[in-house]
Design brief:
The complex is a heterodimer of chains A (about 150) and B (about 60).
Chain A: E1 8-12, E2 15-21, E3 25-34, E4 40-48, E5 54-55, H1 65-82, E6 87-90, H2 95-107, H3 109-115, E7 116-124, E8 127-132, E9 143-148
Chain B: H1 3-15, E1 17-18, E2 21-22, H2 35-45
Antiparallel strand pairs in B: 1-2
Chain lengths: ~150, ~60
Amino acid sequence: MTHIPYPYKQIQSYRYFFVSTGKQKIAKVVDFVPFRKFNAVNLAFGDLRADGSIDDKNVSNNGDIVKVLATVIEILRRFTESEPDVMIYIEGSTSERTKLYTRILKNYYPLFSKEFNIVGIVNLNNERKTVLFDIKSDVEYLAFLIKRIN
Amino acid sequence: MPIAKKKTAKKALKKRSFSGMVIPDRLYSKEPLFLEKVARANEMLRDLEIDPDLFRKK
């Protein structure tokens, strides 16, 4: 993504914070949560509500989705620079969001694929499989695993 | 409140704010924030075999 990201702050080694300043100011949290089974982390992000709770399903319509996603990608870039061997698991909080991420990955594939290997998780004959991400494929990706190219 | 204490409190607040918003203490704790999402991801990855060759192809 070539858009200028928001400034962000690393709060802990696996947690980041930034503020979306579209129509209103919305605090955002990006969290990398390690899995026990794999050398992977779950990329989660959402809005910080006034009461301190997190909402990862809210559609804020703040008019800055591209800038928000550019910020998340910049954080992802920074995180994988310090943890290059870790796979990042990405899944939308809803199937619509996962489809949005699929479209973004397809649109920016020439750029992303220079830095990351991208693997999709798909349903094949009622079994989940990992496949290489293919921008020409119409298959429905359920989630993604990406890893920095060393 | 004594001035020194006030200054310390102000400094702490500044340290724990960003882009004009206060970062709640909760975010500095080890408390997990995205429980539902993590549970869903664990379910997705359960029984999944990741082909390591996919990450070697380029």
